Amino acid sequence: MAQKQGTQRKVCYYYDGDAGNYYYGQPHRIRMTHHLLPNYGLYRKMEIHHAYKANAEEMTSHHSDDYIKFLHSIRPDNMSEYSKQMQRFNIGEDCPVFDGLFEFCQLSTGGSVASAVKLNKQQTDIAVNWAGGLHHARKSEASGFCYVNDVVLAILELLKYHQRVLYIDTDIHHGDSVEEAFYTTDRVMTVSFHKYGEYFPGTGDLRDIGAVRISSLP
Protein backbone atom coordinates (compact mmCIF):
# COMPACT_ATOMS: atom_id res chain seq x y z
CA MET A 1 0.00 0.00 0.00
CA ALA A 2 1.52 3.30 -1.06
CA GLN A 3 2.15 5.85 1.70
CA LYS A 4 2.57 9.55 0.96
CA GLN A 5 5.59 11.11 2.61
CA GLY A 6 4.67 13.02 5.76
CA THR A 7 1.18 11.54 6.09
CA GLN A 8 0.22 9.77 9.30
CA ARG A 9 -0.46 6.08 9.05
CA LYS A 10 -3.94 4.95 9.95
CA VAL A 11 -4.01 2.41 12.78
CA CYS A 12 -6.92 0.23 13.90
CA TYR A 13 -6.88 -1.74 17.13
CA TYR A 14 -9.11 -4.68 18.04
CA TYR A 15 -9.96 -5.41 21.65
CA ASP A 16 -12.70 -6.99 23.68
CA GLY A 17 -12.66 -6.73 27.45
CA ASP A 18 -13.84 -10.30 27.76
CA ALA A 19 -10.62 -11.58 26.19
CA GLY A 20 -8.75 -10.71 29.38
CA ASN A 21 -11.25 -12.44 31.65
CA TYR A 22 -10.71 -16.03 30.56
CA TYR A 23 -8.34 -18.26 32.48
CA TYR A 24 -5.88 -18.64 29.65
CA GLY A 25 -2.13 -18.27 30.11
CA GLN A 26 -1.85 -14.93 31.89
CA PRO A 27 -4.96 -13.04 30.74
CA HIS A 28 -4.11 -9.96 32.80
CA ARG A 29 -1.36 -9.21 30.26
CA ILE A 30 -3.99 -8.43 27.64
CA ARG A 31 -5.74 -6.02 30.01
CA MET A 32 -2.45 -4.42 31.09
CA THR A 33 -1.44 -3.82 27.48
CA HIS A 34 -4.85 -2.34 26.69
CA HIS A 35 -4.59 0.06 29.65
CA LEU A 36 -1.46 1.57 28.10
CA LEU A 37 -3.62 3.13 25.37
CA PRO A 38 -5.39 5.71 27.57
CA ASN A 39 -2.40 6.16 29.88
CA TYR A 40 -0.17 7.19 26.98
CA GLY A 41 -2.90 8.86 24.96
CA LEU A 42 -2.47 6.38 22.13
CA TYR A 43 -6.23 5.92 21.73
CA ARG A 44 -6.39 9.37 20.12
CA LYS A 45 -4.18 8.15 17.29
CA MET A 46 -6.11 5.02 16.32
CA GLU A 47 -9.51 3.53 15.70
CA ILE A 48 -10.57 1.13 18.45
CA HIS A 49 -12.89 -1.71 17.48
CA HIS A 50 -14.51 -4.52 19.44
CA ALA A 51 -13.34 -7.89 18.18
CA TYR A 52 -16.21 -9.92 16.80
CA LYS A 53 -16.62 -13.61 17.60
CA ALA A 54 -15.45 -15.72 14.68
CA ASN A 55 -17.71 -18.66 13.94
CA ALA A 56 -16.87 -22.32 13.43
CA GLU A 57 -17.15 -22.04 9.65
CA GLU A 58 -14.42 -19.39 9.58
CA MET A 59 -12.17 -21.50 11.79
CA THR A 60 -12.58 -24.56 9.57
CA SER A 61 -11.08 -22.72 6.63
CA HIS A 62 -7.89 -24.11 8.19
CA HIS A 63 -8.79 -26.38 11.10
CA SER A 64 -10.59 -29.70 10.77
CA ASP A 65 -14.33 -29.85 11.39
CA ASP A 66 -14.11 -32.47 14.13
CA TYR A 67 -11.44 -30.51 16.02
CA ILE A 68 -13.44 -27.28 16.03
CA LYS A 69 -16.59 -29.17 16.99
CA PHE A 70 -14.68 -30.64 19.92
CA LEU A 71 -13.43 -27.21 21.07
CA HIS A 72 -17.00 -25.94 20.91
CA SER A 73 -18.24 -28.82 23.08
CA ILE A 74 -15.56 -29.35 25.72
CA ARG A 75 -16.00 -27.74 29.15
CA PRO A 76 -14.44 -28.30 32.59
CA ASP A 77 -17.64 -29.99 33.77
CA ASN A 78 -17.85 -32.55 30.93
CA MET A 79 -14.19 -33.48 30.43
CA SER A 80 -14.79 -37.06 31.54
CA GLU A 81 -17.04 -37.56 28.52
CA TYR A 82 -14.27 -36.54 26.11
CA SER A 83 -11.21 -38.35 27.48
CA LYS A 84 -10.37 -40.04 24.15
CA GLN A 85 -10.87 -36.84 22.16
CA MET A 86 -8.75 -34.88 24.62
CA GLN A 87 -5.86 -37.23 24.00
CA ARG A 88 -6.44 -37.16 20.25
CA PHE A 89 -6.50 -33.36 20.08
CA ASN A 90 -3.68 -32.84 22.60
CA ILE A 91 -5.85 -31.15 25.21
CA GLY A 92 -4.43 -31.51 28.71
CA GLU A 93 -1.44 -30.12 30.59
CA ASP A 94 -0.02 -27.65 28.07
CA CYS A 95 -3.42 -26.88 26.60
CA PRO A 96 -5.90 -27.12 29.50
CA VAL A 97 -9.67 -26.91 29.35
CA PHE A 98 -11.05 -23.75 30.95
CA ASP A 99 -14.39 -21.98 31.19
CA GLY A 100 -15.06 -20.05 28.00
CA LEU A 101 -12.35 -21.78 25.97
CA PHE A 102 -14.24 -21.63 22.68
CA GLU A 103 -15.43 -18.07 23.31
CA PHE A 104 -11.83 -16.99 23.85
CA CYS A 105 -10.85 -18.66 20.58
CA GLN A 106 -13.69 -16.83 18.84
CA LEU A 107 -12.51 -13.42 20.10
CA SER A 108 -8.85 -14.10 19.41
CA THR A 109 -9.59 -15.29 15.88
CA GLY A 110 -12.19 -12.62 15.21
CA GLY A 111 -9.78 -9.79 16.00
CA SER A 112 -7.09 -11.13 13.68
CA VAL A 113 -9.41 -11.94 10.79
CA ALA A 114 -11.11 -8.54 11.12
CA SER A 115 -7.66 -6.92 11.03
CA ALA A 116 -6.88 -8.73 7.79
CA VAL A 117 -10.20 -7.64 6.29
CA LYS A 118 -9.43 -4.00 7.16
CA LEU A 119 -6.06 -4.28 5.44
CA ASN A 120 -7.58 -5.97 2.40
CA LYS A 121 -10.10 -3.16 2.00
CA GLN A 122 -7.34 -0.56 2.44
CA GLN A 123 -9.22 0.92 5.37
CA THR A 124 -6.12 0.94 7.56
CA ASP A 125 -2.34 0.81 7.25
CA ILE A 126 -1.68 -1.05 10.51
CA ALA A 127 -3.98 -3.43 12.38
CA VAL A 128 -3.36 -4.70 15.92
CA ASN A 129 -4.90 -7.58 17.89
CA TRP A 130 -3.06 -8.26 21.16
CA ALA A 131 -5.28 -11.27 21.91
CA GLY A 132 -4.00 -13.05 18.81
CA GLY A 133 -0.74 -14.59 17.68
CA LEU A 134 -1.50 -18.17 18.72
CA HIS A 135 1.00 -19.62 16.29
CA HIS A 136 1.38 -23.16 17.70
CA ALA A 137 -2.16 -24.45 17.08
CA ARG A 138 -2.13 -27.13 14.39
CA LYS A 139 -4.81 -28.12 11.92
CA SER A 140 -6.30 -30.81 14.17
CA GLU A 141 -4.45 -30.36 17.42
CA ALA A 142 -3.80 -27.83 20.17
CA SER A 143 -0.20 -27.06 21.07
CA GLY A 144 1.75 -24.73 23.33
CA PHE A 145 -1.30 -23.07 24.93
CA CYS A 146 -2.67 -22.38 21.44
CA TYR A 147 -6.02 -23.80 20.34
CA VAL A 148 -7.02 -21.97 17.13
CA ASN A 149 -4.35 -20.54 14.86
CA ASP A 150 -5.62 -17.02 14.25
CA VAL A 151 -2.38 -16.19 12.43
CA VAL A 152 -2.98 -18.77 9.70
CA LEU A 153 -6.62 -17.70 9.40
CA ALA A 154 -5.62 -14.04 9.03
CA ILE A 155 -3.05 -14.92 6.37
CA LEU A 156 -5.65 -16.93 4.46
CA GLU A 157 -7.85 -13.83 4.51
CA LEU A 158 -4.99 -11.66 3.21
CA LEU A 159 -4.37 -14.13 0.38
CA LYS A 160 -7.85 -13.42 -0.96
CA TYR A 161 -6.57 -10.00 -2.07
CA HIS A 162 -2.79 -10.31 -2.18
CA GLN A 163 -0.61 -12.58 -4.27
CA ARG A 164 2.00 -13.00 -1.54
CA VAL A 165 2.24 -12.50 2.21
CA LEU A 166 5.38 -12.13 4.35
CA TYR A 167 4.94 -13.40 7.92
CA ILE A 168 7.54 -12.33 10.50
CA ASP A 169 7.43 -14.04 13.90
CA THR A 170 9.45 -12.50 16.77
CA ASP A 171 8.22 -14.70 19.62
CA ILE A 172 10.91 -16.57 21.54
CA HIS A 173 9.26 -19.81 20.39
CA HIS A 174 9.45 -20.95 16.77
CA GLY A 175 6.29 -20.21 14.77
CA ASP A 176 6.06 -23.88 13.88
CA SER A 177 2.43 -24.29 12.93
CA VAL A 178 2.31 -21.22 10.71
CA GLU A 179 5.34 -22.58 8.87
CA GLU A 180 3.68 -25.98 8.63
CA ALA A 181 0.44 -24.55 7.24
CA PHE A 182 2.19 -22.89 4.30
CA TYR A 183 5.07 -25.33 3.88
CA THR A 184 4.33 -26.16 0.25
CA THR A 185 3.28 -22.79 -1.16
CA ASP A 186 5.36 -19.91 -2.50
CA ARG A 187 2.60 -17.41 -1.72
CA VAL A 188 3.55 -17.15 1.96
CA MET A 189 7.10 -16.62 3.22
CA THR A 190 7.55 -17.27 6.93
CA VAL A 191 10.48 -15.78 8.86
CA SER A 192 10.83 -16.77 12.52
CA PHE A 193 13.30 -15.29 15.02
CA HIS A 194 13.37 -17.67 17.99
CA LYS A 195 15.39 -19.56 20.57
CA TYR A 196 16.50 -22.90 19.20
CA GLY A 197 17.77 -26.12 20.75
CA GLU A 198 16.28 -27.84 23.77
CA TYR A 199 13.43 -25.38 23.85
CA PHE A 200 9.78 -25.71 22.86
CA PRO A 201 8.79 -26.65 20.20
CA GLY A 202 12.26 -27.82 19.19
CA THR A 203 11.82 -26.93 15.53
CA GLY A 204 13.02 -24.13 13.30
CA ASP A 205 16.53 -25.12 12.31
CA LEU A 206 18.32 -22.85 9.84
CA ARG A 207 18.35 -25.73 7.38
CA ASP A 208 14.56 -26.01 7.45
CA ILE A 209 13.65 -24.05 4.36
CA GLY A 210 10.37 -25.75 3.50
CA ALA A 211 9.28 -27.19 0.21
CA VAL A 212 9.51 -23.76 -1.39
CA ARG A 213 10.91 -20.89 0.69
CA ILE A 214 11.01 -20.67 4.49
CA SER A 215 13.53 -18.80 6.66
CA SER A 216 14.32 -19.65 10.29
CA LEU A 217 16.71 -17.50 12.29
CA PRO A 218 17.35 -19.01 15.74
UniProtKB/TrEMBL annotation:
GO biological process: heterochromatin formation
InterPro entries in the record: HDAC_I/II, HDACs, His_deacetylse_dom, His_deacetylse_dom_sf, Ureohydrolase_dom_sf
A Gene Ontology term for the protein's cellular component: NuRD complex
Claim: Nucleus is one of the keywords in the record: yes
Keywords: Chromatin regulator, Hydrolase, Nucleus, Repressor, Transcription, Transcription regulation
Superkingdom of the source species: Eukaryota
Domain Histone deacetylase: 26-211
Entry's EC annotation: 3.5.1.98
Pfam families: Hist_deacetyl (PF00850)
Reactions it catalyzes: N(6)-acetyl-L-lysyl-[histone] + H2O = L-lysyl-[histone] + acetate; N(6)-[(S)-lactoyl]-L-lysyl-[protein] + H2O = (S)-lactate + L-lysyl-[protein]; N(6)-acetyl-L-lysyl-[protein] + H2O = L-lysyl-[protein] + acetate; N(6)-(2E)-butenoyl-L-lysyl-[protein] + H2O = (2E)-2-butenoate + L-lysyl-[protein]
Localization per record: Nucleus
Any GO MF annotation of the entry: histone deacetylase activity, hydrolytic mechanism
Family assignment from sequence similarity: Belongs to the histone deacetylase family. HD type 1 subfamily.
Protein name: Histone deacetylase 1
